[in-house]
Write a structure and sequence with these properties.
By secondary structure, this protein is of the alpha+beta class. Helix content is 57%, strand content 17%.
């Protein structure tokens, strides 16, 4: 689908330094991706991936930009303030990554407002001012004169700033966003209808619909399978008069009568299939009425006790495990983290939480496609499982991010030793089809109880330490500390 330019690039954003202007355009493109995903109600993982892409590119851009300022304005107050502004941006993005952006429209709007405000004012004010100093120096002026020239130009940029920001917000107007969302909702409603029908057909529970006399109108494959009849055998038949009968006559008559009176009935019944074999089922009956209060249809759901047990087991796997890698997901990891804290409190034993992010994973997806990327994630998952101990746990948090729980530790050297083994394993070349893939990982570590005794805080601090590692050069193992960051190769 074509990306809408919610936040259009404006030539007024150009500061005159080609490399920085090109990178600013890329940032604007990523902000547009974020906006489009909110409009289209994307899946949470997709939003997470786009925010990760924005975070990674921002770090790369900040490093590139700061090299220019350091070259021309070393140790100047403007350069230091600029670095602080960049770090504040990274911190805000990290906070947004932890929020449920899709279900909370206020937070999603807050994110878009923050991004558009920051880009507009940071580029048009701070970056433009710094860029004008550099351009003046390149023209042969000394530093003092260059600052005066840049300040003079800044004094005349207010109208330019207002014009650009107002143009931007014309595109971000509530009417435009509302129209886009209405179009998206209509398309999603059509898709939802198609998916709902597919879900009914694929359900393990038998479902049927009759008219007000009990004549079968529709039934899904599971219902036909439960009673060992084909739809051709059931079509245009009265469910109460099938021969041999599906349900025991006495119990089903009471069910129909109760449904006529109260609208719903549910209970256990004995059903006989076409082979004459009886089985226990749970039947739910409902009556459907028109606007005059007259019954027009009945719907029923037939659940096999055996099928329900299998379905329960499948749901537990889906809730607690990642569909791609089959590793525990964030929910199960959080539960294990709470259990580890309880053990730590009882036994006064420390443990470590590691937040791991793959370096270069996006390049693999872009170069070889998502199929190769999925195989790579599964391969890395197995490598991590083999590198850690049996007493440790690893989970896929989302995208190319993993979390590792290390218990039964003697001291911090145990943590470093295990994670060095994980890092070395990931750095080994991986061959997928005809491709040789090389990646690495950045890891952040938070220690219990030194850094926190709250599950969410431990994971957050490990995440922060990991981002510091990426900022410091990637392929790092970094411990979180309130006062300093220790880097270990």
């Amino acid at each position: 689908m074509m990306q809408e330019e919610i936040f259009p690039w404006n030539t007024n954003f150009e500061i005159g330094i080609a490399m920085i202007d090109e990178q600013h355009q890329k940032l604007v493109h990523l902000v547009n991706k974020v906006a489009n995903h909110f409009i289209l109600f994307s899946e949470p993982n997709m939003i997470h991936d786009v925010l990760n892409e924005l975070s990674d590119y921002t770090i790369y851009h900040f490093q590139s930009e700061e090299k220019i300022w350091d070259e021309f304005l070393p140790e100047e107050s403007e350069t230091i303030q600029h670095q602080h502004a960049h770090q504040n941006f990274i911190d805000r993005i990290m906070n947004f990554r932890e929020k449920d952006l899709l279900s909370n429209e206020k937070i999603s709007h807050e994110l878009l407002t923050f991004l558009t405000h920051w880009l507009s004012f940071h580029i048009l004010d701070e970056d433009r001012y710094m860029g004008n100093i550099v351009l003046a120096i390149q023209d042969g002026n000394n530093l003092e004169k260059a600052k005066a020239i840049a300040q003079h130009k800044a004094n005349h940029s207010t109208q330019l700033l207002l014009s650009t920001v107002l143009t931007m917000y014309d595109s971000l107007s509530s009417k435009t966003l509302k129209l886009m969302r209405e179009i998206s909702k209509r398309k999603q409603a059509e898709e939802r209808s198609r998916v709902l029908q597919s879900a009914i057909d694929a359900s393990l529970e038998g479902m049927f619909i009759t008219d007000n006399h009990g004549m079968l109108i529709d039934a899904n494959p599971a219902f036909c399978k439960h009673i060992h009849r084909t739809w051709n055998q059931l079509s245009a038949c009265n469910i109460r008069q099938l021969s041999p009968p599906i349900f025991e006559q006495k119990s089903i008559e009471k069910a129909w009568q109760y449904t006529d009176k109260y609208g719903h009935w549910a209970g256990e019944i004995r059903a006989t299939n076409s082979l004459g074999i009886q089985e226990s089922f749970w039947l739910s009956l409902s009556s459907l009425m028109n606007k005059y209060g007259m019954i027009t249809h009945y719907s029923g759901v037939l659940s096999s006790a055996t099928a329900l047990i299998k379905q329960k087991d499948m749901l537990e796997v889906e809730v607690n495990y990642d569909a791609l890698t089959r590793l525990p997901n964030r929910r199960l990891f959080h539960e294990r983290l709470k259990q580890a804290i309880s053990r730590g409190e009882r036994n006064s034993t420390p443990f470590a939480v590691c937040f791991l992010d793959l370096d270069g994973f996006k390049d693999v997806n872009d170069s070889y496609g998502h199929d190769v990327g999925d195989i790579l994630l599964c391969t890395v998952s197995r490598q991590i499982e083999q590198a850690i101990r049996k007493t440790d746990s690893v989970a896929r948090i989302g995208g190319d991010e993993f979390a590792i729980l290390l218990e039964s530790l003697n001291d911090k050297s145990d943590v470093t030793s295990i994670l060095q083994k994980v890092l070395q394993s990931i750095q080994e070349p991986i061959f997928i089809a005809s491709h040789r893939v090389n990646i690495s990982a950045s890891m952040g570590i938070a220690m219990y109880p030194d850094d926190s005794s709250i599950p969410k805080c431990l994971l957050k601090k490990a995440d922060q330490a990991m981002y510091m590692g990426k900022h410091a050069g990637k392929s790092r193992i970094i411990y979180y500390h309130q006062e300093d960051i220790i880097c270990e190769k």
